Amino acid sequence: MKRQTLTDARYHTIGYIDTAADGRQTARDARLHALGYYDPHTDTTRDAQRHLVGKGNLLASLIACQ
């Protein structure tokens, strides 16, 4: 699994995006709580409760809203 760290303007960690071998991604906050999921096969983003957020990869916006 590959992890990308997202930081704010002051270089404080605000979240992470983990990418699995099959391409699925998970957005996590700075405390590693899951915020949402992206499935490249269906090209959809879902929140932590698996409700549809939208079409395309919107994980960074889930982290930025925190």
In short:
This protein is mainly beta and 66 residues long.
Architecture overview:
By secondary structure, this protein is mainly beta. The chain has one domain (2-64). 9% of the residues lie in helices and 48% in strands. The chain has one helix at residues 59-64, and strands spanning 2-7, 13-19, 25-29, 34-39, 44-47, 52-55. It has a 6-stranded antiparallel sheet with strand order 1-2-3-4-5-6. A hairpin with a 5-residue loop joins strand 1 and strand 2. The mean pLDDT is 95.
Keywords:
single chain, 66 residues, six-stranded antiparallel beta sheet, 9% helix
Helix and strand arrangement:
Elements: E1 2-7, E2 13-19, E3 25-29, E4 34-39, E5 44-47, E6 52-55, H1 59-64
Antiparallel strand pairs: 1-2, 2-3, 3-4, 4-5, 5-6
User: Approximately how much helix is present in the residues?
Assistant: under 10%
**Any idea how many domains?**
1
Number of strands: 6
Q: How would you spell out the order of helices and strands?
A: EEEEEEH
Beta-strand percentage range: over 45%
Mean pLDDT: 95
Determine Rg (CA atoms, Å). 11 Å
Low-confidence stretches: none
| N- and C-termini, Cα separation | 24 Å
Strand order of the largest sheet: 1-2-3-4-5-6
Shape: globular
Q: Please outline the major beta sheet.
A: 6 strands, antiparallel
Structural class: mainly beta
Q: How large is the count of helical segments?
A: 1
